[in-house]
């Protein structure tokens, strides 16, 4: 890897010093189109002398006399112009590429169908590789971020290679899975974490029901269709892309000085007759520079590097695209490393004029290593105790017992424990396409996705009892799709029909070994047989799905467009009577600009109105959700004899529900697309209204019922909103070109109904039970899915107030009973933004390109439990470290925002309150890249193109939020615990440089 | 070409016809509880019931709602706010229903009850031998009764959820009396069907003396607040006497009682087992009762007045630690610092520590002290004192009852419990005397609080509280503080009515 880089740099240097002779040359050659057909009448000009020119003859041949260091410019209407450096060549053959206007772009709509953008009836956002080629990317979802209206891509964690959440037009389901369906080259896959962004040719996001209904029971959350690159006929092109750089957390959280911390400890611990916890001598030492700011130990500047090598080409019969990618990154949080390797081979072969076959293969491995420091408790740990004593040994516990919080010194875990998470993914699909007649095509495909996870961890004896856990999990997905398509060739009555039969199976198995009581720490999880106690666990689950689909597209006089589809799905997750679901959809569009009254209009170059309606489903529950599953694990074993535990089988924690069935989403969409000033501005506006019914709800039951949860079809959720996207050519003159792509998404999410007669339910379970006795969120009728719960903080009682103890927090007495009880917990906000937006600005000046991606959200709130904890609150938290604590109430500092630092004030403080709620709105420059295109300056070495670039990510974030950043949260993929900041992995700011070489 | 076409048509029609053999889930990997066939099946279904007993008794958390008693106080700092709420009586009208730890026993015992109900249901269709089924059912119902009794003592009346029911979450609370009645039915069944103590190597499993002791406990509770049915005192005495008369159980020398070796001794009637073979989980009692400087969590220690009143002697030495260990944690090991101990008056928390659980503590597992000795749920000394009190309360104090009391007193003084000794023996005793004795004997063992509310003496005991206690009293307790608020989350997910409005005695 390093060597490769060095080599390229050497070559670059060599080229720079190369000199060639300047002489007049006679250059000749042939100009062909993409299919290799010669093009007559193509203009060839000497770029430095516009009077010197020629055109190709009937066979596409030309001859021109130009200086040997000159450049020829080749142009022909309908094709992209090209400038080619002569560089002493006497024979230059050129292949011209069609100049496709934005409206003629082909959009992939699923199940083999490709539709011109102008002919679309549904709502589909399309992102092609050209849109993101100037942004260095690791993950596929990054490319969608800020580029597609109605698609919220949130980076929930700053861990390299991880942590994106995608929601298309809001969350439909409450506790069910709200992830979109990912389809890679026609094959449904479990995740897209490991895909290489530079393998992607295009991504289509299907948003409205007419687009998604063809995916029936799994289409409700929207569908992301990913098409990978395939080979092109012509000379082999080898491309090398690489970049490397460093990352850092965007900001640290301000803390007090160690001496201030110690004074806070003494204030809090003060009790009658008790001496100061941390004595005056030590405080003097702290003031002189002793003590610790833990964030200095947890964060680091983290290097990363990425290289992709690919080759693509093809002959008349066979084309290929192969690529290899390796990405290595350290995380900004200590001891967290990430490596990813992947390989791809896409090959197509035309066996005869009727039969075409192909195979797409992808294999990858990703590795996450290192035990992560617990930021939530670590940052709030004792500032008085350095990690090591003077002889270099760990200070495992606070120097003064009972200071800070109940955990051990935070560096013990990352520096001694081991974690290794490996994910291997294979995606392989094969197809055969047979043209039965000119109009009827049969396409049969089959695919396999296999994902193996190996998660190993070891807890070192220095942190507590030693323990190793190794878990192997295997997922296998098989899919077979058989499609029969008909297409006529009457432009006035263009008709297309598809019939599809599809079947899929998915199987998951795991085996887990837990070992403890090791007599040595030296082999960690690599040798479990050294453990005194060894336990095993295993499990298996399976699901099957069978589907039938029919779809027709009809276009009348290229003005009136109709699409209709119906899909039937049968799923093994439900009992026989509820197994099959039918999902219909229909849409129509009117290309108004094709009508005579608007044809050749000077301002409006295109105008289309669209409307669609359809039903999609979700079966997003785990297999075996309809039945009881007895609990079998060490949690149910008991040592009757006082020695070896006997095996227990506990009744199910899930209440069986044999009536479980589909959740359905009905969506209505209306929109228009307008092109102005010769398509210099393209505006698309969509309004949608979605209603999800029979929601698959995992409901928490009160303890006395026995089972702790039941999955039910209950409730309704509504999502309404707008997607707006505006693509404009802002300026295009001389050597300048400025393009802007702006999109805005506003979604209003509302729970319409829950289980009959119930107005609110507690459904989040990330914090309930572990951190808080009352869940910080709940789902309530009339509110968005996740509503923050808490007391209404109304300041601090002051000296002289009629009520309350001075210095104690004041809360609103909702039920006016003159007491603050749990009845006074109310709704204090929510984590849903009012709208999100993205703006991609692309500036070209000569060979320079500046690409900037801005992105933001407005109106969402964040429950900042990280700050709450740093203020000395929370279970197992003893003392405050946050800089805001300096402003805590005292008789001389009558603060109205922060309660007093005494133990009594702390006890009277509610952790769940609006005191910890903050505005999470933000605007960020997500990415900025400056690229210089050296074009063919290296052509003597056979280099076709060479670009160098510098890139910065998250260069600024404008926000009032006081945490690390307003983006990353601990809620991860959950929609019921949205917007909670606690032990989140902060996102990073990074800088990189890189190059892109084609030869 | 023709040939290819044919192949394709055949292949295609095959695929269109062929489909996944069926769309049924393969459930062969899932075990069913509806089919308990062998003795082994029965034990496997019984195990998780005991497991919940173990989980719930694992540490101080089960005591959270009972910190108002004078044998318990906590650290004025750290994360002990929930314990301070109860120690200082900052509850009683629905407030502080939403605090941590409050619902620990609620969750643990309801889960136990669910496991027991499921097993009893499963027995209806079980093909296992009838004799085994009867014992297993008796054990399940015995533990269910103990769990219910524990919950009713803390929270008051509860919904009745027994086998054969399919609860939905909409159930309402019964009355305390109705709860006592179904607990009694379970215990009487258990008493009739459980084996005699010591008849099995499974030291952790319930014997008939467990059922009898729990019955005695139930009747004594029934006789006191809140139901106050004095006729139950005689029943309590009868059941306690039956345990005494079995002749199986004995009192151990007090200085040996809490050692690891004397776990599951003849003094133990029911205890929750914590085996090292399960891994390093153990129980948290040594850590809960040790100060931070002794590598514990400073969760629970005796109130100063309680300690002062506690009579000197062998039992006081075995109950408390007055020289507090001074320890650190370094290189993955707990180490002793210099000086090795610090007197309690000058120690970190200015209180003595309990020594009942630290006597058997293990300092070799991780950063905190930990315990593997079984935790006593009922032990023989309690049976003797229940007998004495029930006799006194029912006005039938006699020699046998005095002997029972004196056995405990003699043992406390380090003497042979069975040899009369005029230096300690008493010749008369009031209910109050016996309750006080019981408080000393069972100090810290999750008993004192229930004695105080049952006998309605909480108020007078609290009045004697040492003003030097660092946890402030928010109020003097009244009957409103006798019961704990139901957990806020349980109220939110059900139709239960919060205390005190929902508290119904009869």
Put simply, the count of helices of chain A is: 11
> What is the succession of H and E elements of chain B?
HHHHHHHHEHHHEEEEEEEHHHHHH
Rg of chain A (CA only): 32 Å
Q: Can you give the helix content of chain B as a percent range?
A: 40-55%
What this model shows, in words?
The complex is a heterodimer of chains A (999) and B (506). Chain A has 999 residues and is mainly beta. Among the domains of chain A are: 2-95, Immunoglobulin-like; 245-298, no CATH class. In chain A, the strands form 10 sheets. Chain A has a 22-stranded antiparallel barrel. In chain A, β31 (663-676) and β32 (681-693) form a beta hairpin. Chain B has helices at residues 2-17, 39-56, 81-87, 104-124, 130-155, 176-193, 208-223, 232-246, 285-289, 304-309, 314-319, 380-393, 399-412, 431-441, 448-454, 458-463, 488-492; strands at residues 268-272, 320-321, 323-330, 333-343, 353-354, 361-362, 370-371, 375-379. Chain B is mainly α and 506 residues long. The model of chain B has no long low-confidence stretch (mean pLDDT 92). Among the domains of chain B are: 36-189 and 478-506, Serine Threonine Protein Phosphatase 5, Tetratricopeptide repeat (Alpha Horseshoe), CATH 1.25.40.390; 274-373, no CATH class. Chain B has 17 helices and 8 strands. The radius of gyration of chain B is 26 Å and the shape is globular. In chain B, the strands form 4 sheets. In chain B, strands 1-8 form a two-stranded antiparallel sheet. A two-stranded antiparallel sheet of chain B has the order 2-5. In chain B, α2 (39-56) runs antiparallel to α4 (104-124), α5 (130-155) runs parallel beside α7 (208-223) and α12 (380-393) packs across α13 (399-412). At the A-B interface, β24, β25, β26, β37 and α11 of A face α1, α2, α3, α4 and β3 of B.
């Amino acid at each position: 890897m390093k060597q490769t880089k060095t080599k390229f740099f050497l070559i670059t240097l060599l080229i720079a010093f190369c000199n060639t002779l300047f002489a007049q040359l006679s250059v000749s050659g042939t100009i062909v189109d993409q299919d290799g057909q010669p093009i007559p009448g193509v203009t060839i000009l000497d770029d430095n002398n516009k009077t010197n020119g020629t055109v190709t003859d009937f066979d596409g041949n030309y001859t021109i006399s130009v200086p040997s260091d000159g450049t020829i410019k080749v142009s022909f209407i309908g094709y992209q112009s090209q400038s080619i450096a002569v560089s002493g060549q006497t024979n230059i053959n050129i292949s011209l590429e069609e100049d496709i206007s934005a409206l003629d772009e082909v959009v992939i709509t699923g199940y083999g169908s490709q539709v011109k953008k102008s002919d679309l009836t549904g709502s589909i956002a399309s992102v092609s590789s050209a849109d993101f080629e100037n942004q260095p990317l690791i993950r596929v979802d990054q490319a969608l971020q800020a580029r597609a209206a109605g698609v919220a891509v949130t980076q929930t964690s700053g861990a390299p290679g991880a942590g994106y959440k995608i929601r298309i037009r809001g969350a439909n389901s409450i506790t069910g899975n709200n992830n979109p369906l990912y389809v890679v080259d026609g094959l449904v896959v479990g995740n897209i974490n490991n895909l290489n962004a530079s393998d992607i040719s295009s991504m289509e996001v299907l948003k409205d029901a007419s687009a998604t209904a063809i995916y029936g029971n799994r289409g409700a959350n929207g569908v992301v269709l990913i098409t990978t690159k395939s080979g092109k006929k012509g000379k082999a092109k080898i491309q090398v892309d690489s970049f490397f750089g460093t990352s850092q957390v965007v900001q640290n959280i301000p803390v007090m000085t160690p001496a201030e911390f110690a004074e806070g400890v003494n204030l809090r611990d003060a009790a009658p007759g008790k001496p100061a916890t941390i004595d005056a001598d030590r405080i003097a030492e702290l003031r002189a520079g002793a003590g610790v700011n833990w964030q200095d130990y947890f964060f680091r500047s983290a290097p990363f590097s990425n290289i992709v090598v690919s080759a693509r080409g093809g002959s008349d019969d066979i084309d290929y695209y192969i690529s290899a990618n390796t990405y290595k990154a350290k995380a900004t949080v200590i001891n967290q490393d990430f490596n990813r390797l992947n390989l791809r081979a896409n090959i197509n072969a035309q066996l005869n004029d009727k039969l075409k076959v192909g195979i797409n293969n992808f294999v990858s491995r990703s590795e996450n290593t290192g035990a992560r420091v617990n930021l939530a408790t670590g940052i709030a740990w004792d500032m008085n105790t350095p990690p090591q004593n003077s002889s270099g040994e760990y200070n495992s516990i606070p120097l003064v017992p009972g200071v800070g919080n109940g955990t051990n010194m935070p560096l013990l875990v990352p520096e001694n424990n081991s974690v290794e998470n490996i994910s291997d993914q294979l995606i392989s699909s094969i197809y055969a396409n047979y043209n039965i007649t000119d109009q009827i095509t049969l396409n049969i495909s089959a695919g396999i996705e296999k994902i193996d996870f190996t998660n190993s961890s070891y807890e070192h004896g220095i942190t507590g009892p030693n323990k190793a856990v190794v878990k192997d999990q295997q997922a296998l997905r098989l899919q077979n799709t058989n499609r029969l398509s008909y297409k006529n060739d009457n432009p006035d009555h263009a008709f297309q029909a598809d019939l599809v039969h599809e079947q899929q199976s998915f199987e998951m198995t795991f085996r887990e070994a837990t070992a403890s009581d090791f007599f040595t720490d030296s082999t960690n999880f690599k040798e479990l047989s050294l453990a005194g106690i060894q336990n095993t666990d295993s499990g298996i689950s399976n699901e099957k799905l069978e589907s039938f689909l029919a779809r027709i597209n009809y276009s009348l006089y290229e003005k009136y467009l109709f699409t209709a589809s119906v899909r039937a799905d049968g799923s093994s997750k439900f009992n026989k009577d509820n197994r099959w679901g039918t999902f219909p959809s229909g849409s129509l569009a009117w290309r108004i600009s094709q009508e005579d009254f608007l044809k050749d209009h000077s301002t409006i170059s295109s105008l289309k109105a669209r409307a669609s309606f359809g039903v999609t489903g979700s079966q997003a529950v785990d297999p075996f959700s309809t039945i009881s599953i007895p609990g079998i694990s060490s949690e149910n074993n008991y040592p009757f004899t006082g020695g070896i535990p006997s095996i227990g089988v506990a009744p199910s924690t899930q209440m069986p529900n044999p009536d479980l069935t589909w959740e359905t989403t009905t969506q209505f969409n209306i929109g228009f697309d307008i092109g102005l000033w010769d398509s210099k501005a393209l505006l698309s506006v969509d309004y949608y209204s979605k209603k999800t019914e029979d929601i698959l709800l995992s409901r928490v039951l009160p303890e006395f019922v026995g089972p702790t949860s039941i999955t039910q079809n209950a409730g309704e959720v509504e999502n309404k909103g707008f997607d707006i996207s505006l693509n404009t050519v802002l300026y295009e003159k001389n050597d300048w070109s400025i393009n802007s792509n702006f999109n805005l998404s506003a979604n209003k999410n509302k729970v319409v109904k829950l289980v009959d007669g119930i107005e609110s339910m507690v459904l989040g379970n990330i914090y309930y039970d572990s951190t808080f006795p009352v869940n910080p969120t709940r789902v309530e009728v009339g509110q968005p899915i996740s509503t923050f719960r808490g007391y209404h903080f109304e300041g601090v009682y002051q000296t002289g107030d009629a009520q309350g103890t001075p210095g104690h927090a004041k809360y609103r007495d909702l039920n006016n009973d003159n007491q603050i009880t749990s009845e006074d917990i109310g709704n204090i906000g929510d984590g849903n933004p009012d709208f999100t937006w993205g703006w991609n600005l692309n500036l070209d000046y000569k060979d320079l390109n500046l690409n900037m991606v801005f992105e933001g959200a407005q109106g969402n709130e964040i429950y900042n439990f990280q700050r709450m904890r740093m203020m000395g609150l929370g279970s197992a938290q003893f003392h405050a470290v946050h800089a805001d604590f300096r402003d805590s109430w005292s008789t001389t500092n009558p603060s109205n925002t922060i309660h007093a630092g005494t133990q009594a004030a702390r006890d009277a403080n509610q952790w769940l309150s609006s005191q910890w709620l903050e505005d999470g709105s933000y605007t960020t420059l997500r990415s900025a890249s400056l690229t210089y295109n050296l074009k063919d300056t290296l052509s003597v070495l056979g280099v076709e193109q060479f670009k160098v670039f510098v890139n910065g990510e998250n260069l600024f974030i404008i926000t009032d939020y006081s945490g690390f950043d307003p983006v990353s949260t601990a809620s991860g993929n959950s929609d019921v615990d949205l917007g909670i900041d606690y032990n989140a992995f902060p996102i990073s700011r990074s800088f990189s440089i890189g190059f892109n070489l084609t030869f | 070409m023709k040939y290819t076409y044919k192949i394709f048509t055949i292949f295609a029609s095959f695929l269109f016809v062929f489909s996944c053999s069926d769309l049924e889930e393969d459930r062969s990997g899932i075990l069913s509880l509806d089919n308990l066939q062998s003795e082994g099946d029965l034990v496997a279904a019984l195990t998780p019931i005991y497991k919940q007993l173990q989980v719930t008794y694992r540490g101080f958390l089960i005591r959270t709602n009972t910190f108002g008693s004078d044998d318990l106080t906590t650290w004025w700092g750290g994360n002990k706010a929930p314990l301070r709420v109860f120690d200082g009586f900052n509850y009683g009208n629905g407030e502080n229903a939403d605090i941590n730890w409050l619902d620990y026993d609620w969750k643990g015992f309801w889960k136990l009850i669910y496991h027991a109900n499921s097993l009893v249901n499963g027995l209806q269709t079980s093909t296992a031998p009838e004799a085994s089924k009867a014992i297993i059912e008796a054990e399940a119902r015995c533990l269910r009764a103990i769990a219910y009794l524990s919950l009713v003592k803390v929270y008051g009346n509860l919904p009745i959820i027994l086998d054969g029911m399919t609860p939905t979450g909409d159930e309402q609370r019964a009355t305390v009396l109705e709860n006592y009645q179904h607990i009694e039915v379970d215990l009487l069944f258990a008493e009739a069907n459980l084996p005699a103590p010591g008849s099995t190597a499974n030291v952790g499993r319930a014997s008939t003396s467990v059922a009898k002791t729990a019955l005695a406990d139930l009747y004594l509770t029934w006789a006191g607040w809140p139901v106050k049915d004095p006729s139950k005192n005689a029943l309590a005495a009868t059941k306690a006497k039956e345990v005494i008369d079995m002749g199986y159980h004995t009192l151990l020398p007090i200085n040996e009682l809490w050692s690891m070796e004397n776990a599951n001794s003849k003094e133990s009637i029911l205890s929750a087992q914590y085996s090292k073979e399960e891994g390093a989980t153990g129980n948290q009692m040594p850590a809960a009762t040790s100060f931070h400087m002794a590598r514990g969590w400073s969760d629970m220690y005796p109130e100063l007045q309680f300690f002062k009143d506690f009579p000197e002697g062998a039992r006081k030495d075995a109950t408390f630690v007055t020289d507090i260990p001074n320890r650190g944690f370094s290189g993955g090991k707990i180490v002793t610092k210099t000086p090795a101990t610090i007197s309690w008056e000058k120690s970190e928390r200015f209180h003595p520590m309990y020594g009942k659980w630290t006597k058997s503590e293990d300092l070799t597992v991780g950063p905190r002290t930990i315990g593997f000795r079984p935790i006593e749920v009922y032990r023989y000394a309690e049976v003797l004192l229940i007998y004495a009190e029930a006799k006194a309360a029912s006005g039938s104090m006699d020699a046998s009852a005095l002997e029972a009391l004196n056995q405990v007193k003699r043992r406390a003084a380090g003497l042979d419990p069975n040899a009369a000794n005029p230096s300690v023996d008493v010749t008369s005793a009031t209910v109050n005397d016996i309750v006080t004795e019981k408080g000393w004997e069972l100090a810290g063992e999750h008993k004192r609080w229930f004695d105080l509310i049952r006998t309605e003496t909480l108020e007078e005991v609290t009045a004697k509280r040492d003003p030097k206690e660092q946890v402030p009293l928010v109020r003097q307790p009244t009957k409103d503080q006798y019961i704990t608020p139901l957990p806020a989350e349980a109220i939110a997910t059900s139709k239960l009515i919060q205390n005190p409005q929902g508290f119904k005695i009869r």
